[in-house]
């Protein structure tokens, strides 16, 4: 089992919302968080404890870094 593949292409709906996204306070705050935190170091640390490749059953797992960033944004 591996990690889910993340598609980084922009959809039609995302493309139509780009102008409003540029002025969003939430997007600006997430950009500041991205610059302040060294996510690569966190990803290496998380991979030591997040073992998703041991089972061949079930759906692919989300990457541990994606789960951590989701929790940070939730808080």
Overall description:
The protein has 75 residues and is mainly alpha-helical. The chain has one domain (12-50, 59-74). It has helices spanning 12-16, 18-21, 25-36, 39-49, 64-74. The chain is flat and about 45 Å long. The two termini are 29 Å apart.
Order of secondary-structure elements: HHHHH
Overall number of structural domains: 1
Low-confidence region ranges = none
Strand content: under 5%
Number of helices: 5
Total E-strand runs:
0
User: What is the molecular shape?
Assistant: flat
| Structural class label | mainly alpha
Radius of gyration (CA) equals: 15 Å
Distance between the termini: 29 Å
Overall helicity = 55-70%
This entry's quaternary arrangement is single chain
Q: Calculate the mean pLDDT score and round it.
A: 78
Most strands sheet: none
Give a brief rundown of this model.
The chain is an all-alpha fold and 75 residues long.
Task: Name its key features.
75 residues
Topology:
Blueprint: H1 12-16, H2 18-21, H3 25-36, H4 39-49, H5 64-74
